[in-house]
Amino acid sequence: MPKRILQGVVVSDKNDKTVVVRVERRFAHPLLQKTVRRSKKYKAHDAENQYKTGDTVFIEECAPVSKDKRWKVVSTVSADA
């Protein structure tokens, strides 16, 4: 089964080797058909502490690293994309 890859924004880098990434999803409301935005925060492994607050990154699911961390940061979104 392929690993999921999500795109989000780093909202916290205060922990050592960990960043908190907010991932936003959009969907149409079932009844009203209005676009609704929902977000969720994921803790992701950042071994070199290279990602800072405000960076847009891709995270990939992985084996558990700690109690809360099930994701790792793959890369940052390029500026030309």
From TrEMBL:
GO molecular function: rRNA binding; structural constituent of ribosome
Role, per record: One of the primary rRNA binding proteins, it binds specifically to the 5'-end of 16S ribosomal RNA.
Record's keyword terms, sorted: Ribonucleoprotein, Ribosomal protein, RNA-binding, rRNA-binding
Organism: Martelella mediterranea DSM 17316
Domain of life the protein comes from: Bacteria
Xref: CDD domains: Ribosomal_uS17
Keyword Cell membrane set for record: no
Summary of subunit composition and partner proteins: Part of the 30S ribosomal subunit.
Short name of one Pfam family: Ribosomal_S17
Annotated Gene Ontology cellular component terms: cytosolic small ribosomal subunit
Family: Belongs to the universal ribosomal protein uS17 family.
Origin organism lineage: Bacteria, Pseudomonadati, Pseudomonadota, Alphaproteobacteria, Hyphomicrobiales
GO terms (BP aspect): translation
Protein name (database record): Small ribosomal subunit protein uS17
